[in-house]
Each structure stands twice: as structure tokens, then as C-alpha cells.
Amino acid sequence: MNFNDLKIFQAIYEIGSLNKAAEQLGYAQSNITTRLKVMETELNTKLFLRTQKGVTPTKTGNIFYSATLNIQAELAKVTTQIDQQKKTLLGSEVLISELLNNSGLVSYSHFSKIVVKRQENIVQEAANNLYDLVVTFADLNNNHNYHLQKTRAIKCNYLARESHAFANNLPVLVNSDPICAFRKRTLQDLADKSRILEIDSLQAIEMMVEQGSGISLLPCSFAETKNLVKLRTTDISLEYKIYQSK
């Protein structure tokens, strides 16, 4: 027996019909009948009696209905308490992906709300709204609502679909966000600025690199998940910060 069985029992009890309960819950009647038999077997008692109009609860069924309501109420309380413990997260797309998918520090289940902003807007957003965690390349030292929890580094490399992409004079793609750390490092490394192509979206940059239409400095994890080639023999480390609300 599980929590879903309790919902099935409650629907049968309140509606008084296996068929109508099945329709309301979106199940086949045979599934409802099977789950009811499982409950009655585990409890070693009859919960309902069949009539021409449907089903009526037995004395035990009435007792079990009261217990079901109590269990559902307690479950709702626990669910609310769990939701209240979940946190809010602010960050750029690439850093949120790194934090949740590759850092091993937290998972999506820890958060009730995740807000993605361009790096240039994160400082202002953190000033306007309080978040439990902010992951950013920027400093929030002037915002007294947060303290620096830890500093980490994201491994990145120039990625392309083919290893000779630089020789083919493909454009070097950078995010148009002026304070993007990947953009800054690319402009620092690249002597020929005429090859720079600004793109407004990380997703668009990924797509163009995957299609062989450009080169871009991206997290090393992208090379593995998207079957891309690293163009440098050594990876680059870009430092980012995780701030926590006080």
C-alpha cells in the first residue's frame, strides 16, 4: 500500500463508485479494482460492499476513511515544511548549469525557484530581491545582505566541432554580455579581434559550435556532453563565487 492507494480509496469512498472514481483519477477501472483488492488483502478486511448503485463502505471502511484523511493532512503538513526549506537561486545560465550539474554541491531538488539572468544584470537583481544563493563571476561585496560562501573554478576550453577550426578562420563566438567572464577571457586571448562574433544567447552559441559554424570558449563539460573538440592542450580556469544570504 502507498500514498496513491490512499487517494484511490478516498475517491471511491467519496464518490461511491469504482467506475466514476477511475474516471476522476484518470485510471482504468481494472486498475482501481486491483489496487482496492491489494488494500483489502493487506488490511485483511473488506472496505466496501458492492450494490446496484455502486459501493458502500463497511464499518472498517468508515474507520479507514477517517485514518486516510488524517494521513493526508499530515502528509500535506510535511510537504509544506519541505517546500519551505527549499531555497531560491540566482545566477547566469552557464554557472547555474555548472553548479547544479557538475559541482556535486547541490541539486535541482534543493530549490523552489531558480532565476536566470545575464551576468551584467545579476548584481542589480541581487540588490532588488533577496535570494538564498547567488552564483556569479561578479563581486557582491557592496551588498550587505550576502556573504561569500565559497569560491570555485569552472574548467573551460575553446571548443569546436573539428580540431582544425582555428585554421579554417571560423568566427570566434562570444556572449554580448559585457561582463561575461568567458567573453573577457576570449578578448584577452585573441589577437585578431576581427574574428569576434557577438551572440546574445548561450544556447545560440552552443548550437553554432555544434553545427561547425564557430569556435567558442565554453565549459569543458560541454565537450563531453556535446561531442566537441578541445582546441587547447590545457584547460582554462575561470573563478566564480557562491554567495549566501545572511
Automatic annotation (TrEMBL):
Keyword Cell inner membrane: no
HTH lysR-type domain location: 1-58
Keyword entries, A-Z: Transcription, Transcription regulation
Xref: InterPro entries: LysR_HTH_N, WH-like_DNA-bd_sf, WH_DNA-bd_sf
SUPFAM superfamilies referenced in this protein's UniProt entry, alphabetically: Periplasmic binding protein-like II (SSF53850), Winged helix' DNA-binding domain (SSF46785)
GO-annotated molecular function: DNA-binding transcription factor activity; transcription cis-regulatory region binding
Family: Belongs to the LysR transcriptional regulatory family.
Protein name according to UniProt: LysR family transcriptional regulator
